[in-house]
Design goal:
By secondary structure, the protein is of the alpha/beta class. The chain has 19 helices and 14 strands. The strands form three sheets. Strands 9-10-11-12-14-13 form a six-stranded mixed beta sheet, sandwiched between helices. A five-stranded parallel beta sheet has the order 2-3-4-1-5, covered by helices on one side. Strands 6-8-7 form a three-stranded antiparallel beta sheet, with helices on both faces. A hairpin with a 2-residue loop joins β13 and β14. The radius of gyration is 22 Å and the shape is globular.
Length: 407
């Protein structure tokens, strides 16, 4: 069993809040994590609404179902019975004891009508993503804490492209499979999620169009979201396209990376970037293998950027510092792949380069961000495929890509 570093923040939340909500895609390990908390004695019972009898009881009489539960309870796959949220609100309002319910959902229950309203102020919210590189290595990452520290410790890299990390992704089942069998797992996963979960969330007549949208987005990792261009390419009305995109987000297949909106005294691009949440699944959907990636440096660079961005998003859920993640791009073309806002409003810029050596122009975006932010700019880092940690200035460093999970 892989360690899940989100477990510790969840345990702390169970000591303070009556309801903890754990969201995430299918097969990322939510049920395994919840059952481990029961085994540790943090919770008393594990119930899943994948059980048809329990689901029928929850749907027929939600209030009676909840009233009959004793002790501290896990309710898994709670999105299957959205009628539970209103009586749950009344139940916890009468008794605010912490740690009463751990709810999990494979689709974003906050996207369901009224669910967010019922749960506001009564829950702690967590998102479990596919395995991080640190979880795969059994080493808790300190990358984000190191970026906001006074000094960044040197890291020794391997000097090679981490193709296997991209191709295997982070779904626990897929990771355990030999490479030649992962393609079948990814295919079945997509088919199952798009067929089963979508039926519960929305009425979509043509699931093939939803699959086409995901496949198209998978070929464009870390690119700006352009509704008009996507609509033309797929021959879909903009209203339908936006509804389908929201479903892919609710299923945790894609995630948007918002633009940096601080007042920098210039016009900035306000479109988010789109990130596939798992590189292995996205590469499978795009029909790309290692040889194709190595043969197209530009495409490789975008997948590597999306990979790093999602690793940072995962770590932000359990890091020792509170970090928000953005991207930065001005209308004049200056851009930084990731902008991290940390404690006290400090900002760290991160660039990702799929090369083993760097050029002066690789630092241009970071220097522009530093000039615009002034004292708020804490540090700029370029992650690259070289071996050495290289200081370019007091607040500008090149770090091997492995710093992401070795620091």
């Amino acid at each position: 069993m892989f360690p899940r570093y989100l477990a510790e923040p969840i345990k702390r939340a169970l000591e303070d809040r009556p309801v903890v909500l754990l969201l995430g895609g299918r097969q990322v390990g939510k049920s395994t994590l919840a059952q481990a908390l029961v085994a540790e004695g943090r919770l008393d019972r594990y119930l899943t609404l994948d059980d048809l009898t329990l689901l029928a009881a929850a749907q027929l009489d939600p209030q009676g179902f909840l009233s009959g539960l004793q002790g501290r309870v896990v309710l898994d796959e709670v999105q299957r019975a959205p009628g539970l949220f209103l009586p749950l609100k009344a139940l916890v309002d009468r008794d605010r004891r912490p740690g009463r319910f751990l709810l999990t959902g494979s689709a974003n229950v906050l996207a369901l009508p009224k669910a967010a309203e019922h749960l506001v102020g009564r829950m702690a919210l967590f998102t479990l993503w596919p395995l991080s590189q640190g979880e795969l290595e059994g080493r808790k990452e300190g990358f984000l804490s190191a970026l906001f520290a006074e000094e960044v410790p040197p890291v020794q890299g391997e000097g090679r492209l981490p193709l296997e990390r991209l191709l295997r992704g982070g779904y626990p089942e897929a990771v355990r499979l030999p490479p030649e069998r992962r393609g079948a797992w990814f295919r079945d996963y997509l088919a199952t999620v798009l067929a089963r979960e979508v039926r519960e969330l929305s009425q979509v007549e043509r699931l093939g169009e939803l699959a086409r949208l995901y496949a198209l987005l998978a070929t464009r990792p870390a690119q700006l979201l352009n509704w008009a261009e996507l609509s033309r390419t797929l021959s879909l009305p903009a209203t339908t396209l936006k509804r389908y995109f929201a479903l892919l987000e609710a299923l945790y297949l894609v995630r948007t990376l918002p633009p940096w909106q601080a007042n920098l005294g210039k016009r900035l691009t306000k479109s988010p970037k789109v990130l596939p949440t798992d590189p292995g699944l996205a590469l499978h959907a795009a029909g790309l293998d290692g040889a194709r990636l190595e043969g197209d440096p530009t495409l490789l660079g975008k997948y590597l950027e999306a990979f790093v961005a999602m690793e940072v998003v995962k770590q932000a859920g359990y890091a020792g510092v509170a970090v928000e993640v953005f991207h930065y791009r001005s209308h004049s073309g200056e851009e930084v792949d990731l902008v991290l806002e940390g404690p006290g409003g400090k900002v760290v810029g991160v660039e990702v380069k799929a090369r083993g050596s760097l050029r002066p122009e690789d630092l241009r975006g970071l220097k522009s961000l530093a000039q615009a932010l002034g004292p708020r700019f804490h540090r700029g880092v370029v992650l690259y495929l070289g071996r050495e940690t290289v200081p370019f200035a007091k607040d500008l460093h090149a770090l091997p890509l492995e710093a992401l999970w070795k620091l």
